[in-house]
Amino acid sequence: MTASSSTLSVGARSRPRSGARLWKLQRSERVAGYGFAFPIAVLFAVFVGWPILFAIYLSFTRWSGFGAPQFIGVDNYTRMLSDPVASVAFVNTIVWAISVTVLQTVIPLVVAVLLSRVWNGLSVVVRTLLFIPGIVSFVVSGVLWKLIYDPNLGTLNNLLESIGLGALKQDWLSNPALVLPCILVVSLWGALGMNMLIFFAGIQGVDVSLYEAAQVDGASAWQQFRYVTIPSLRVVTAIVVSLNLMNGFKIFDLIFVMSSGGPNHASEVLGTYLYSLAFGSTSGSIPQLGYGSAFSVVVMLLCGVAVLVQIVLSRRASR
Amino acid sequence: MTTVATRAGTSSPTGARDARRRRFPTAKSFVAFILLAIAAFTMFPFVWLILTSIRPANTVFSGGFWPTSVSFDAYVKAWNSTDFGLHFANSMWITLVTVIGVVAFASLSGYAFAKLRFPFKNLIYVLLLATLMMPATSLIIPLYLQLKDLGLLNTQAGLIVLYVSSSAPFSMFLMRAFFETLPDELVQAARIDGAGEFEIFWRIMLPLARPGLATVIIFQFLATWNEFIYANTVLQNTDELPLQPVLFGLVGQYQTDWPTLCAGLTMSIVPVVLVYVWMQRQFVAGMTLGAVKN
Questions:
Q1: Which three-class secondary structure string do you get for B26-67?
Q2: Domain enclosing residue A126, as ranges
Q3: Is A61 helix (H, G, I), strand (E, B) or coil?
Q4: Cα distance between residue B114 and residue B14, in whole Å
Q5: Is A144 part of a structural domain of the chain?
Q6: Gap between the Cα atoms of B294 and A306, Å rounded
Q7: Which of chain A's ends, N or C, has fewer CB atoms near its CB within 10 Å?
Q8: Rounded (10°) CA dihedral B206, B207, B210, B213
């Protein structure tokens, strides 16, 4: 808006012209504006906007995909409240999102600070390596770690055995208490590099004179971190927190690949449950598109919450 | 974007403090040791993956961590028995078309939202961005039904349309950020010289936004190559499948043949690692810019 008004004033100042000519110029600009934005807007309307509305509609129906959807009001939502798997999935999704947000913010921050304090060459090498897990797909990382966690032949159990901790050996992904923490490790492994880099870029932007002033005042390394680095990174932290929260609510691929929500729904999240309701052959032969869509709406609402958190955080951080 | 890259190259803000103490940098060495340990933990799964893929089949579950002899049989087997070449080509084709589509739509609209004035511009922009974070899982049911209605289910065209429409808004957002860094006077001067709006975009502004394009291309390449849920849902015909659903299917099929499984996984990550190594600077700079501008 500031950009457009300055364009106008520059044009008007540098070249006096009649109102009609200006109007004509602006018209061609308007036409171009709509023309350039039109294709994406159409695609978006057909394949994002409409599906959102359709999902909301379907969530009030019962439908197997054949015949016409049958309108049943809020029955899907009340059914959700009494469905034990739904509550497990809901709680797991929330717990997952919060754990991911905390761990994938704090650990990358600490690593980024450490990286800013070592020799530059080492820092570059470590940064490059840490980023690699983030570029492979969730299928690859999920399958890879599934092999590592394998109860009989997996490297983790072999490793524990070889360092004398054989007593800890177990079937990691079949243990209801351990399955989500195990997958969380994989998530952290994948996200560390990216989040660390965002923090690292932020640290590079911190005014060096602040550290110098702190040193003059005799601040220890910890005090510098606590009273200079952390406050200077408020905006960046707000970004990382909201990205993590959003990705946390979206969780699907890793769990689908590594445990499919098992054992016995112990690692079920909203994404995997709605997928199995709609497309899974194991949950019964009839696709439950209406009930599944109700979960779609819940996931959308959670992402809406994440967006609100982002807005609030970034407002407060930039104040 | 250059600022991030050059800043990353300069010394750390603690340089002044280190200059003050001239003794052996104990603290620094300790930190370096911790970082190397973290890097080792990060790389361990990949090292293990590659070592497992080159083990002779009969020594997988016996013997130490380092294989005593090397065999590439697993790669041959993985390539032949899974029709790897076909799925690899499918992934390449789907990714290529998606990237071209996203770049075309995102740069045009990103330019329009950054540099052109038209009524309801901000409203349209906000609408496009509002659902940027809409997760694939919550749209998968209606999208599946919609593709079915349009006769695009089980076709690569259907999958590509989903990819382009779901990822173009984010790339548009990146491109808009890049176009905004270019001076308005360029557009203005070109208009005075009588250039048409598309000509200004195509001949003047787009070439200047090359760093932005590089970021969008590389980001989109990785995202499309790695995508799983849409590919797994939209395509059922085995011949049409890209790599990710095939890799997922390998787990059940080669439950006990880990070298073959690991060889397949390794081959599938070669393109993304190559792209990462080749265009690392643009990628990292673009990602951080995108995230920070957010």
A1: HHHHHHHHHHHHHHHHHHHHHHHHHHHHCCCHHHCCCCCCCC
A2: 75-318
A3: strand
A4: 38
A5: yes
A6: 14
A7: C
A8: 30
CA distance A153 to chain B (A): 6
What's the pLDDT score for residue B66? 74
pLDDT tens digit sequence for A85-122? 999 999 999 999 999 999 999 999 999 999 988 888 89
User: What are the structural domain ranges in chain B?
Assistant: 85-293
Residue numbers in chain A where pLDDT is lower than 70: 1-25, 281-285, 319
Render pLDDT for B53-86 as a digit per residue (tens, 0 to 9).
888 766 666 666 777 777 788 888 888 888 888 9
For the purposes of burial, counting CB atoms within 10 Å of the CB of A224, is it exposed (0-12), middle (13-18) or buried (19 or more)? buried
Question: Which residues of chain B neighbour A197 with C-beta distances below 8 Å?
Answer: 284, 287-288
Q: Which residues of A touch B180 (CB under 8 A)?
A: 3
- Residues on chain B touching A258 (C-beta within 8 angstroms): none
pTM to 2 decimals?
0.84
Q: Is the pLDDT of residue B293 over 80?
A: no
CATH code of the domain containing A260: 1.10.3720.10
Q: Which residues of A touch B122 (CB under 8 A)?
A: 1
Q: Look at the block and give the residue holding tokens 């100042």.
A: A13
User: With contact defined as beta carbons under 8 Å apart, do B79 and B265 qualify?
Assistant: no
Which pLDDT does position B99 carry in this prediction? Answer: 95
Residue ranges in B116-209 assigned as alpha helix (H):
121-130, 136-149, 156-180, 184-192, 197-199, 206-208
| Residue B272 touches chain A, beta carbons under 8 Å | yes
Question: C-alpha distances in angstroms, B95 versus A202, B90, B99?
Answer: 32, 8, 6
A92 with A128, same domain: the answer is yes
State which fold the B85-293 domain adopts.
MetI-like fold (1.10.3720)
User: Is residue B43 less than 8 Å (CB to CB) from chain A?
Assistant: yes
Is residue B292 within 8 angstroms of chain A, CB to CB? yes
Query: Stretch B128-149: mean pLDDT, rounded?
Result: 84
Cα–Cα–Cα angle for A99, A103, A105, rounded to 5 degrees: 120
- Least Cα distance to B275 among B229, B231, B226 occurs for B226
Q: Which residue has the tokens 């409409």?
A: A50
| ipTM for this prediction | 0.83
